[in-house]
């Protein structure tokens, strides 16, 4: 299975996470507009990436003749539900610049939790899920 699109998506999402970190370090209050825009852009990338996984990748892996690949796919798909919901709440709360300016430390805490979980998930997919899919 060709995994190029998924790897490009991951690279773009990781770049967005890095952008959010850089903007936050430079000052949440001063960069609230840019942070807000980066959050929305990241959410858009993730939305399309998840749709591709849900509509193409997971169904293909679920029908694999290799039971371990189907099991990995089911586990990853199930795990993504919680992270997707947490990220959705993060976007809903922090996409408004005024909220970022009102509570920069709350944003920093939430970003550290949600973006770290997202980063770790992408790394795990690159190490485990995508190599299994590429072998099909």
TrEMBL record:
Residues 4-133 form the Hemerythrin-like domain. It holds the Pfam family Hemerythrin. It comes from the Bacteria. InterPro entries: Hemerythrin-like. This is Hemerythrin HHE cation binding domain protein. It comes from Pseudoxanthomonas suwonensis (strain 11-1).
């Amino acid at each position: 299975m060709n995994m190029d699109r998924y790897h490009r998506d991951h690279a773009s999402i990781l770049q967005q996470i890095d952008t959010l970190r850089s903007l936050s370090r430079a000052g949440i209050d001063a960069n609230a507009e840019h942070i807000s825009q980066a959050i929305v852009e990241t959410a858009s990338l993730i939305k399309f990436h998840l749709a591709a996984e849900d509509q193409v990748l997971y169904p293909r892996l679920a029908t694999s003749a290799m039971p371990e690949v189907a099991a990995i796919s089911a586990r990853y798909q199930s795990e993504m539900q919680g992270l997707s919901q947490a990220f959705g709440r993060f976007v809903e709360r922090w996409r408004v610049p005024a909220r970022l300016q009102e509570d920069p430390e709350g944003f920093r805490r939430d970003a550290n939790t949600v973006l770290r979980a997202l980063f770790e998930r992408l790394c795990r997919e690159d190490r485990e899920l995508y190599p299994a899919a590429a072998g099909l």
